[in-house]
Amino acid sequence: AMNLTRHFKVGGSLFTRPKTLRAVEDVSLTVQKGETLAIVGESGCGKSTLARMLMRLIAPTSGQMTFEGRQIDQAEGRALTELRRDMQFIFQDPFSSLNPRMTVGRLVGEPLETHAPQLSGKDRRAKVGELLAQVGLRPEHGERYPHEFSGGQRQRIGIARALASGPKLIIGDEPVSALDVSVQAQVINLLADLRDRLGLTLVVIAHDLAVIRHMSDRVAVMYLGKVVEEGPTDEIFATPRHPYTMALLSAIPEAEYGRTRAQIPLTGEMPSPIDPPAGCRFHTRCPFAREACKQDVPALRDTGIAPGHRAACHFFEEIAAEGAMPLPTGG
Ligand code: SF4
Ligand code: MG
């Protein structure tokens, strides 16, 4: 069918005993078919927890998730197997996620046993060769073991394995952050290329805005378990509205986005998600914090700049008017 829409909503919080760890709190996100959504934030902001809930590796405490109109948070048995075929995961550390005693050919072919059991041995080997070619590896690489490959090649193997089931959605949890900077761009380009060729939908988790700058359509910025700003990637870079987003952007060298902007320093540590600050969770580090920020929880509100651009700050209008914003281009 044409014009399929993929809605993917999450709401909920994760509880661990004996204390309540509010890793993800009341997050709602939607990703459209063919789109790339980036989820960005410092480590501990809840983005990996969110990714694991999306993958059904852990259950949300409350809230719902839907995939192509089907509710998936309770999926079991056959429905869960189908979900595992449609949604695949790429891990941060490609080495730890690959069994060192299996050849690359077996690693990539293994998901086919579940998702394409009808294939003969010969057809399966042909399919493995095809998958390796898709990620830029050669058929003879299938005879080798993971330790014989570089970090970037191992991530390619992880991607080939993720592609084996013919997924519609791929979730990458910091897929390039363990790689050398020189290799990061190659893997990012490969993912973008596969998305376009195979019509994939991507959700990419990252702690670095620069990494996702050129590959994502939309960005959701998370802080202490909450989405503090979301919107089209270009708008987030050009006209950020949340002070935390401004601080993350201030950490990127200017050449990366080619604009002059006010520098918002990010001081101090992120507080613990156990017993997070009341009111705005960012108030302990925000240079614009006022009394009201300590009590009142800011809602995600439309910025009025672009459709879907929303920020959770009581005072973003005033902060923008006061000029704590990027200067106009060429100014
Ligand atoms: Fe800063 Fe207050 Fe806005 Fe939170 S609500 S980001 S503390 S100004
Ligand atoms: Mg993480």
From TrEMBL:
It is found in: Cell inner membrane. One of its GO terms (molecular function) is ATP hydrolysis activity. Its main location: membrane. The keyword Metal-binding does not apply. It comes from the Bacteria. Residues 1-249 form the ABC transporter domain. One of its GO terms (biological process) is transmembrane transport. It is a peripheral membrane protein. Transmembrane segments: none annotated. Keywords: ATP-binding, Nucleotide-binding, Transport. This is Oligopeptide transport ATP-binding protein OppF. It comes from Palleronia abyssalis. The gene is oppF_6.
